[in-house]
Write a structure and sequence with these properties.
The protein is an alpha+beta fold. It has seven helices and six strands; from the N terminus they run H-E-E-H-H-H-E-H-E-E-H-E-H. The protein has two domains: about 70 residues, SP0830-like domains (Alpha-Beta Plaits, 2-Layer Sandwich); about 110 residues, Alpha-Beta Plaits (2-Layer Sandwich). The protein has a four-stranded antiparallel beta sheet with strand order 4-5-3-6. A two-stranded antiparallel sheet has the order 1-2.
């Protein structure tokens, strides 16, 4: 997952071009999903992939983009560990809540005191749970209204982060599982 591309006309990368770039790096079965930098691929080597991708994007496009990688197993674990099962995210509730439940993928697990610092920015209706290097966030009023934005999380938790809604998390897992 790429952080911060194609947002407000900044750091523009066409997904078709990104697919070609990943294929040139030797990745197989490359699939992109929506314009926010979601790429599913398979690779035989597993060393320094983050640095390889970040360097290739910098070289090709002339700007830095943080890359956060997760395996199919990581996505499976994230889905299985979702604390918001009462929202019926596997069934009819996905249409109502699939964009109100989000997962923020972190480069590292945050410190407990930093997590407590972030909690003061949540509205009374919002819920945030941290499990390892992932944050589950429920924003019943919509992600656009929360103060717990990706930028705030990165700043307060002192980690790189990228956020995806529950529909996207499920779709990426489905694509990776094919």
């Amino acid at each position: 997952m790429l952080r911060g591309i194609n947002v407000s006309g900044q750091k523009k990368i066409k997904m078709a071009d990104l697919k070609v770039l990943y294929e040139a790096l030797g990745f197989a079965h490359v699939i992109t999903y929506i314009q926010s930098g979601n790429v599913v691929f398979t690779v035989e080597k597993n060393t320094s992939l983050t640095a390889l991708i970040e360097t290739a994007i910098q070289k090709q496009y002339g700007f830095d983009v943080p890359v956060l990688l997760r395996t199919t197993q990581d996505f499976d674990d994230i889905i299985k560990n979702c604390p918001f099962t009462h929202l019926n995210l596997d069934g009819v509730g996905i249409e109502q809540n699939g964009t109100k439940v989000l997962v923020t993928f972190l480069s590292n697990a945050p410190l407990d005191e930093d997590v407590q610092n972030v909690r003061k920015y949540l509205s009374p209706s919002e819920t945030m749970l941290v499990k390892g290097n992932a944050i589950y966030l429920h924003c019943p009023d919509g992600y656009g209204k929360t103060k717990a934005s990706n930028a705030l999380l990165e700043k307060k938790l002192k980690v790189q982060a990228t956020t995806r809604n529950w529909k996207t998390v499920q779709k990426l897992f489905a694509l990776a599982s094919e």
